């Protein structure tokens, strides 16, 4: 907080402040009396809210102001320079004249109410709080203090407890005025002057004495050249005289490279005028100027994009975040030189490469009318500064705060009134914006959707005393000072229970969450810490039981109560877990939760927290059953086995029950022990009646716990809904059916119950009870598996997991079908949509009415499609077709249309013969596997066509006749050919016309005659490709020639010889049957046929062939 003359936090109180007003402020302050030993006195007030807008609330922050501070405020002169600052560690200091008052406003340890007063160095100029640093070193419990006068005189106190023990040193600034002191441990403090000179001030210990070393960081020559006093007073005439850039420095932002001030490497950003320098300072190394850049040009360009041409500009304030800086800018235009425009602009500063221009990451123009409440004040109240939170930019002056939402893009702007009196300062304390007001002291601005005041309803008033819950203030101090994230989370939770919401948030901001920004959000530090604290809660020792005194750890002991009964302790653990969930939601941690790997699967972290609550519910149920003498002996046995397995033995008067019920996270192991005990039971030598009765007892214990868990899961499921903003695949497989070993244990118990209980008893009552228990087992397992499947919907894993679930589903329900327990099987199958079981039940019981009911009931789940597939798979097509004509079979009939092999039957049954014929013809054309089937299809197609109402077309009948002729040709193939090629006539496949031609003329046909050859020629009509037809015709005639030996014939009687040749027999048959020679090749075609080989060049062959052709032509003519 800079309270110098140019700051909005003016060192002088308004001259308008009257004594009456000061008295009012004093009275108001004194109403907030501090509370000894509290971490934040503010949190103990019944009402923390000062004012509230639709989206924001102003609350008290920290402890009430010490009396010394309120007196100094009340009785200070109107001309006195007053300023305040506060550190992230909770130490606040107040400067009035040379008086420096230091107190603890909040902290990780119990807050001390003592206020220390130190004397600042003498100065002719007004001291200010921004030239003071109060901090704690590792070697001291009490903070030290370093203060610098405006002239550069440095004074250092190694402990504020010793106000008279200090050392001094002069920074030798040669007349420059000091402006700001930035703490950069362990390097020391960085002193910055109004002319941007940087001086590193380092307290050291030399020869057992404290010393100060002041070293000026060399600035490149001429960096501030041209900046000077070039701003026109006319342009910024509306800005108070203290803001006319007489001082060139605007702001310094320092950021540790590792996010840890003890690392010793800092990036320092210095803004002076329009120039930005980035420095790197290392512990033990020479400082380095990373880059220097002019911000004026990109800012002007940003205003140009909103149609505003900037003539002159001035930077009013700068704030830094992790990788960027944000600036508040005022500009004038040539058209309206007296009118100011304002804007917020962010620049990325994470790169170390000297940029030509700095990239703008965000820009927002602020309209003058939005700033009117801040600009319409008197001249010395117009100075504007701002703080930046995750949700808003808070622009303020001496009287008002204006909240500009960064989430809505600046569309939501609200004016906040922090109470009567001036705003004397502001700073970001962790992630909280903290303001100091004349009347109310420290206040903070939070989002109003955080129900800070509703905590009174979520936590009963009698639970706000930490000491009643196993942790004193000293223990809380020790817990808060740890580096352990889990310890900080526990402390934050305890503060939340004490209704100290502001300090609880501050504690959360101290968590080391190095991977909080990772996009994967799986196994993040925050999730691990939250789950660990939850587990610590359910495994916590009873704080009021003296037998546990030696076993208490440094973790939270918050579940203790005045009652020493185990059942009450478990119920309180459940109640505390509910508070813990409220704590995570109220502090906006719930939305940040991602997923964690558990049992080999990535589950949403809220579901893991739900699992912890469910285990407490199971433990409560088990303890209640433990009180029943019927179950106590068996439960004692199982508990003892669990303790032995985990190496736990009673001590100090504690019992097995004390040890077991304390560590609730082990509750699932009692399930395994019950199953193990049941296995030993069924294989023992006990009588069947005893085994059955004990199985029922073991099942009762298991199922009562599981049912209690399931009931709680469904009742509380809305409370554990994960954030909808997650972009990762998260599974949900409840622990009651998720772990492989747990699921296997339940399946084993079911098998024991079925084989050694249901099937071994003749008692109908016992059998019915065992079957009912089996139903519940199956229900619990399938319920969990179904949740798992649903959690993976629309992911690549869904189909695989769904298939596994469907397999397990039928395997779990099938035993009821085998035992003919149809009602129990149907109940489970209906609930979990196991359609195969439902269909088999209807089939076995021949209950068509029930099947019709299922068809209608599960219409949206495509039950008809499943039924159709089942009929097909079971080769019950006749049942399927028959069902189509019964009531409720309309959906099946529609499905038949997608299966032509059956739809024609339905068409025949409904009298649609024409469509049946068309379908059969189509099926026959595509039939290639079985000749008999194709013949039947064609025959039925012809009959249906003839039976149709419309007279069939001649072309349709001719097409069917042609198809049948082709089949007849295949049926007339000689058996010798089929046997030669290994074909079975009873299962003969359909041959193509080309295949039939080659089979008729093949050499494997020893009885081949000219009639076989003529069939082959006739089959050419079924060949539609002209080239293929020509090749096959030549092949037929060449085969006819090669059937005989031409060269051995007697050339002296050529006519008689040729008439005995197969070739000319086929020619004569063609003339006889076709009355033409269209199918006979010419001599020229035969003379070039390669199929004849050397024969075509034989003179005798050529002679006989020509003689034969001459004779044939004469006969034809």
TrEMBL record:
GO molecular function: structural constituent of nuclear pore
Pfam families tied to this protein: Nucleoporin_C (PF03177), Nucleoporin_N (PF08801)
Gene Ontology annotations of biological process type: poly(A)+ mRNA export from nucleus; protein import into nucleus; transcription-dependent tethering of RNA polymerase II gene DNA at nuclear periphery
InterPro entries attached to this UniProt entry: Nucleoporin_Nup133/Nup155_C (IPR007187), Nucleoporin_Nup133/Nup155_N (IPR014908), Nup133-like (IPR037624), WD40/YVTN_repeat-like_dom_sf (IPR015943)
Residues of the Nucleoporin Nup133/Nup155-like C-terminal domain: 799-1030
Subcellular location field: Nucleus envelope
Gene3D superfamilies, per database record: 1.20.58.1380, 1.25.40.700, YVTN repeat-like/Quinoprotein amine dehydrogenase (2.130.10.10)
Domain of life, source organism: Eukaryota
Composition bias, Polar residues: 12-41
The protein, known as: Nucleoporin Nup133/Nup155-like N-terminal domain-containing protein
Taxon lineage: Eukaryota, Metazoa, Ecdysozoa, Arthropoda, Hexapoda
């Amino acid at each position: 907080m800079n309270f110098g003359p140019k700051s909005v936090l003016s060192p002088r109180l308004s001259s308008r402040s009257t004594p009456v007003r000061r008295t009012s402020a004093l009275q108001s302050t004194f109403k907030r009396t501090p509370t000894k030993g509290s971490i934040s006195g503010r949190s103990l007030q019944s009402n923390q809210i000062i004012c509230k807008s639709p989206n924001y609330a102003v609350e008290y922050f920290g402890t009430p102001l010490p009396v010394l501070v309120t007196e100094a405020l009340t009785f200070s002169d109107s001309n006195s320079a007053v300023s305040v600052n506060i550190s992230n560690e909770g130490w606040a200091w107040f400067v009035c004249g040379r008086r420096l008052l230091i107190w603890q406003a909040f902290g990780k340890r119990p807050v001390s109410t003592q206020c220390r007063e130190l004397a600042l160095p003498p100065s002719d100029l007004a001291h200010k709080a921004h030239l003071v640093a109060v901090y704690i070193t590792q070697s001291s419990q009490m903070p030290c203090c370093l203060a610098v006068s405006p002239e550069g005189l440095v004074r250092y106190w190694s402990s504020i407890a010793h106000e008279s023990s200090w050392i001094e040193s002069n920074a030798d600034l040669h007349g420059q005025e000091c402006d700001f002191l930035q703490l950069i441990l362990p390097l020391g403090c960085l002193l910055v002057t109004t002319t941007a000179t940087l001086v590193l001030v380092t307290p050291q210990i030399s020869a057992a004495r404290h010393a100060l070393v002041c070293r000026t960081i060399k600035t490149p020559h001429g960096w501030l050249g041209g900046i000077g006093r070039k701003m026109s007073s006319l342009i910024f005439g509306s800005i108070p005289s203290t803001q006319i850039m007489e001082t060139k420095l605007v702001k310094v932002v320092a950021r540790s490279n590792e996010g840890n001030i003890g690392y010793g490497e800092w990036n320092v950003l210095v803004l002076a005028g329009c120039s930005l320098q980035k420095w790197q300072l290392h512990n033990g190394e020479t400082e380095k100027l990373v880059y220097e850049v002019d911000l004026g040009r990109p800012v002007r360009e940003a205003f140009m994009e909103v149609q505003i041409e900037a003539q002159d500009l001035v930077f009013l304030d700068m704030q830094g975040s992790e990788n960027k800086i944000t600036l508040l800018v005022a500009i004038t235009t040539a058209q309206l030189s007296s009118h100011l425009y304002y804007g917020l602009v962010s620049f990325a500063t994470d790169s170390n490469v000297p940029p030509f221009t700095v990239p703008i990451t965000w820009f927002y123009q602020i309209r003058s009318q939005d700033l009117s409440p801040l600009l319409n004040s008197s001249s010395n109240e117009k100075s504007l500064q701002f703080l930046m939170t995750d949700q808003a930019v808070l622009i303020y002056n001496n009287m008002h705060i204006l909240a500009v939402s960064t989430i809505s893009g600046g569309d939501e702007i609200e004016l906040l009134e922090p109470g009567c009196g001036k705003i004397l300062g502001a700073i970001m304390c962790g992630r909280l914006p903290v303001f100091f007001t004349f009347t109310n002291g420290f206040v903070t601005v939070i989002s109003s959707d955080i129900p800070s005041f509703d905590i009174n309803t979520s936590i009963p008033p009698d639970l706000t005393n930490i000491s009643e819950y196993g942790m004193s203030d000293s223990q809380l101090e020790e817990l808060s000072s740890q580096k352990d994230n889990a310890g900080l989370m526990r402390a934050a939770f305890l503060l939340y229970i004490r209704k100290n919401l502001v300090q609880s948030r501050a504690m959360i901001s101290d968590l080391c969450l190095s991977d909080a920004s990772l996009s994967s959000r799986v196994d993040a530090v925050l999730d691990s810490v939250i789950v660990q604290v939850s587990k610590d809660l359910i495994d916590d020792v009873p704080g009021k039981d003296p037998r546990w005194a030696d076993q208490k750890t440094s973790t939270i002991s918050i579940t203790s109560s005045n009652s020493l009964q185990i059942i009450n302790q478990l119920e309180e653990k459940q109640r505390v877990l509910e508070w813990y969930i409220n704590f995570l939601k109220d502090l906006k941690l719930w939305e940040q939760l991602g997923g964690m790997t558990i049992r080999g699967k990535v589950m949403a972290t809220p579901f893991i927290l739900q699992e912890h609550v469910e285990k407490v519910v199971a433990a409560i149920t088990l303890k209640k059953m433990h009180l029943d003498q019927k179950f106590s002996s068996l439960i004692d046995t199982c508990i003892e086995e669990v303790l032995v397995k985990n190496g736990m033995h009673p001590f100090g008067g504690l019992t097995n029950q004390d040890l077991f019920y304390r560590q609730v996270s082990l509750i699932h192991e009692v399930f395994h022990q019950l199953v193990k005990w049941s296995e030993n039971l069924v294989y023992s030598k006990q009588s069947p009646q005893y085994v059955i009765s004990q199985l029922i007892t073991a099942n009762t214990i298991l199922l009562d716990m599981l049912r209690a868990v399931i009931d709680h899961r469904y009742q509380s499921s809305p409370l554990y809904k994960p954030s909808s903003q997650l972009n990762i695949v998260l599974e949900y497989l409840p622990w009651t059916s998720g772990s492989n070993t747990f699921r296997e244990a339940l399946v084993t118990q079911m098998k024991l119950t079925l084989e050694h209980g249901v099937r071994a008893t003749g008692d109908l009552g016992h059998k019915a009870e065992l079957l009912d228990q089996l139903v519940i087992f199956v229900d619990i397992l399938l319920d969990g598996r179904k949740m798992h499947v649903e959690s993976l919907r629309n992911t690549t894993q869904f189909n695989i997991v769904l298939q596994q679930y469907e397999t397990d589903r039928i395997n779990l329900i099938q035993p009821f079908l085998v035992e003919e327990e149809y009602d129990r099987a149907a109940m489970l199958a209906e609930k979990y949509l196991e359609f195969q079981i439902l269909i088999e039940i209807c089939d076995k019981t021949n209950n068509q009415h029930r099947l019709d009911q299922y068809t209608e009931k599960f219409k949206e789940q495509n039950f008809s499609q499943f039924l159709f597939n089942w009929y097909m798979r079971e080769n019950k097509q006749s049942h399927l077709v028959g069902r189509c004509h019964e009531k409720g079979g309309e959906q099946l009939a529609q499905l038949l249309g997608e299966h032509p092999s059956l739809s024609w039957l339905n068409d025949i049954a409904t009298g649609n013969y024409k469509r049946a014929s068309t379908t059969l013809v189509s099926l026959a054309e595509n039939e290639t596997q079985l000749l008999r089937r194709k013949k039947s299809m064609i025959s039925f197609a012809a009959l249906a066509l003839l039976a149709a109402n419309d007279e069939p077309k001649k072309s349709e009948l001719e097409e069917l006749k042609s198809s049948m002729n082709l089949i007849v040709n295949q049926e007339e193939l000689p058996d010798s050919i089929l046997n030669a090629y290994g074909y079975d006539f009873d299962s003969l496949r359909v041959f193509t016309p080309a295949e039939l031609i080659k089979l008729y003329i093949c050499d494997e046909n020893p009885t081949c005659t000219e009639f076989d050859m003529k069939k082959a020629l006739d089959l050419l009509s079924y060949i539609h490709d002209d080239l293929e037809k020509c090749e096959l015709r030549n092949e037929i005639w060449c085969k006819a020639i090669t059937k005989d030996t031409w060269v051995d014939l007697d050339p002296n009687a050529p006519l008689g010889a040729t008439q005995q040749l197969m070739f000319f027999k086929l020619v004569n048959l063609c003339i006889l049957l076709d009355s033409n020679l269209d199918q006979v090749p010419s001599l020229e075609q035969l003379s070039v046929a390669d199929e004849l080989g050397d024969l075509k060049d034989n003179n005798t062959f050529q002679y006989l062939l020509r003689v034969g052709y001459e004779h044939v032509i004469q006969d034809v003519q």
